[in-house]
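We emphasize that the prediction below concerns an isolated chain of 70 residues; any contacts that depend on oligomerization or on bound cofactors are therefore not represented. The input was used exactly as deposited, without trimming of termini.
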Amino acid sequence: MVGGGSPLFIKNLFSPIRTLTVNIAMDMGYASGVHREALFSTALVLLLFSIITNLLKNFILSSNKGLKKK
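Result of the prediction step, given as a token string:
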């Protein structure tokens, strides 16, 4: 893992990190109850972030196409 896989709080820019996707993948096997619900919430946040990013990209690309035609 590039980030280090550490679930600890980040103290500086070079501290090891654990990304949200790695967190879901590593913890889903044994999670139950509130922990499992938190992992599903994390997945929902990632999905929403991905959708918003794609919508923004499409908006920027479509506005650039309009500028090129003029």
